[in-house]
TrEMBL record:
Active site: Y106, D147, H248
Protein name: Exodeoxyribonuclease III
UniProt family annotation: Belongs to the DNA repair enzymes AP/ExoA family.
Record keywords, A-Z: Hydrolase, Magnesium, Manganese, Metal-binding
Gene, per the UniProt record: xth
Co-factor binding details: Probably binds two magnesium or manganese ions per subunit.
GO biological process terms on file: DNA repair
Amino acid sequence: MKIATYNVNGVNGRLPVLLRWLEESAPDIVCLQELKAPQEKFPEKAIEDAGYHAIWHGQKSWNGVAILSKGLDITEKSRVLPGDPEDSHSRYIEAAVNGIHIGCLYLPNGNPAPGPKFDYKLRWFERLTRHAAGLLASDSPVILTGDFNVMPTELDVYKPERWVDDALFRPETRAAFKELVEQGWTDAIRKLYPDEKIYTFWDYFRNAYGRDAGLRIDHFLLSPHLDKRLIAAGVDRHVRGWEKTSDHAPVWIELAD
């Protein structure tokens, strides 16, 4: 089974890119972030024509998450991260697909830091960590995936000295990610490629993609059930080079049946 995550940076504006990649890569399950579309503007028909069922949680202009499945039953479990009834951002959706519990997330950016946006990021991280503990305790196969907006280590960022004050790389953010992983999750990319430079995001500015000045901020966290089934993982880096593409590239894993 092939599962992918992709921050599309606008599902309607990047729809030709998304459909081209779906046809080329043919993942069984896809988690999307940054739809940037209200609920009624999600391109359900085009996604269906590409062979995918979809559930989504949209929001006008910002955020938005979705889970797609190809020929597999998908059962929505939640579209809200517990812990803050006042939080109106569409950043989390959870479903059961083919016996796997999948949480698709778009964690807040948090810049500028320090400040209210960074405080919100850390509070959101705390809520995610509490919820993740409950998912692990359920003893079900679970995947948490999406745009975490964190570079866990210096290996995950081009010229880390330039990012020390950024919300994605501040010590508090990296500590929050470490605390989450140490509950018992496996960082899929790092399990298979512990020492390799791997990026999932390249800014539109200063020819970042051409210079390979990237960041690894899109992650797969696997519960112990799935850790043992992980057989491959990678980044479809070339998609970042397509015309009118997202600033992220799709990330994927393969699980043994």
